[in-house]
Amino acid sequence: MNYQHIIDKYYNEDADLRRILVVHSQSVARRALRIADKHPELHLDRPFIEEAAMLHDIGIIRCDAPGILCHGTEPYIRHGLLGAEMLRAEGYERHARVCERHTGAGLPLDEIIAQGLPLPHRDLQPETLEEQVICYADKFYSKTRLDREKTIAEAARSLAKFGDAGVQRFMRWTEMFE
């Protein structure tokens, strides 16, 4: 798969937004690949991890998030679903699943309903180990502070808005992947 082709297709007119997407995604990919290298016993699909990490936020272009130069119409919480739609249209179902399941530490159906999130009423938690590794790696990097890596404690605190279950899931991943 040539993930660069997909990035080029959707981000060919806005160099600043493209830079935010690519720099953030490269950081996530590097961390996820370090985890794969550190844990050969997990038998992770390294090429897939790189591709999916580079595409996990492709849907931000369709969101309204001026702080990261996104001037679309959709709420930011939907960027994973939007990215999944984009990747499914390209024929990349497995990559699409990473997109739709990486928000927070994954979003269980009960949290989506309880918080009244504008998301479909279905479980959106990462299932495969590759999905979990990318979701975990993503929590360490913000698109507003591209030059900074969060600590484990800072990443866990940033998940609190999605509920305690997400923080607990993140901490379990810390035990698995660090």
How much helix is in the residues? Answer: 55-70%
Instruction: Outline the biggest β-sheet.
Output: 2 strands, antiparallel
Strands in their spatial order, largest beta sheet: 1-2
What is the H/E order?
HHHEEHHHHHH
- Enumerate how many helices there are, as a single number: 9
Note the beta-strand portion.
under 5%
Number of strands: 2
> What distance lies between the first and last C-alpha atoms, to the nearest angstrom?
28 Å
Radius of gyration, Cα only, in angstroms? 15 Å
- Give the integer mean of the pLDDT values: 96
What's the overall geometry? globular
Are there runs of 5+ residues with pLDDT below 50, and where?
Answer: none
Structural class of the helix and strand makeup? mainly alpha
Structure explained in plain terms:
The chain has 9 helices and 2 strands, in the order αααββαααααα. It is mainly alpha-helical. It has a two-stranded antiparallel ribbon. A hairpin with a 4-residue loop joins strand 1 and strand 2. The chain is globular, with a radius of gyration of 15 Å. The relative contact order is 0.14. The mean pLDDT is 96.
Q: How would you summarize what this structure contains?
A:
The chain has 178 residues and is an all-alpha fold.
Keywords:
single chain, 178 residues, mainly alpha, two-stranded antiparallel ribbon, 9 helices, 56% helix, globular
